[in-house]
Design brief:
Elements: E1 4-10, H1 17-25, E2 32-39, H2 45-51, H3 53-57, E3 61-66, H4 71-81, E4 86-89, E5 95-96, H5 100-110, E6 115-123, E7 144-148, H6 150-158, E8 169-172, H7 189-199, E9 206-217, H8 223-228
Parallel strand pairs: 1-2, 1-4, 2-3, 6-9
Antiparallel strand pairs: 4-8, 5-9, 6-8, 7-9
Length: about 230
């Protein structure tokens, strides 16, 4: 039985395929489904994925190709394919350690929560230095071992304590039954989806953690990079 589905949208990501395959293959959690969605790439991303030796040898990998429609459409397609009890979203051009999936799953199962949030480290494009503290995701006093509910999570969203980064949380698949990423938006689509998910789950249980297993790489041409510099 698949315990967790990992959804990774990709667009023109040929130069990241090898590192992504390595990072996923080395995950020490085996009851996982790796859903890689090629979003209409024109640089051979799909072919490189399908022919990569680690991908071919690891049964956790599933490769899909769809017409280009943006990251929201790719994530929504991944949700349709998901068979796990839990969902983790990753980006194909970032770095994450081998304990990410196991740590996320162990955390959400330890108190039977619906969604658990983790810190991520924002690093420069060369991956050799974290960005200044003012740009980092800092949960501050929100980090606690106790379970919090819908009202408290909404307040954290409104005051900016919790951001929309999909890579910063693990959630139960059932929460996404009537929730999707808005495909008409090109910015803040992830925040919109998270707000909808929390708003529509009255008896939501969540925890916020201070540990991090994920380096979010800030590329100069990314939308998030542009917003941070505003």
């Amino acid at each position: 039985m698949v315990k967790v589905s990992v959804i990774v949208p990709l667009y023109n990501s040929a130069k990241y395929v090898d590192e992504l395959a390595v990072n996923l293959n080395k995950q020490n959690y085996h009851s996982a489904q790796f859903i890689l969605i090629d979003d209409g790439s024109i640089d051979g991303t799909e072919m490189l994925l399908r022919e990569h030796p680690l991908v071919k040898a690891d049964k956790r990998f599933e490769i899909y190709s769809i017409a280009n429609g943006g990251v929201s459409g790719a994530r929504n397609y991944g949700l349709i394919q998901a068979k796990g009890k839990y969902i983790i979203f990753l980006d194909g051009d970032d770095y994450f350690d081998e304990k990410l999936i196991s740590s996320y799953v162990e955390a959400i199962e330890s108190k039977d929560t619906d969604i658990d949030f983790f810190k991520i480290t924002l690093v420069d494009e060369m991956k050799n230095a974290p960005l200044p503290d003012k740009f980092q995701l800092n949960y501050g006093s929100a980090v606690k071992d106790t379970v919090v509910g819908q009202e408290e999570l909404l307040s954290y969203l409104c005051d900016g304590t919790i951001k929309g980064y999909p890579v910063a949380y693990i959630s139960k698949l059932e929460l996404w039954q009537n929730v999707s990423f808005p495909e008409k938006y090109r910015v803040n689509e992830d925040l919109s989806a998270l707000f909808q998910l929390i708003s529509e789950t009255t008896h939501l249980k969540a925890r916020i953690h201070d540990e991090t297993h994920y380096d979010y790489i800030m590329h100069e041409d990314s939308a998030v990079h542009s917003m941070l510099l505003c």
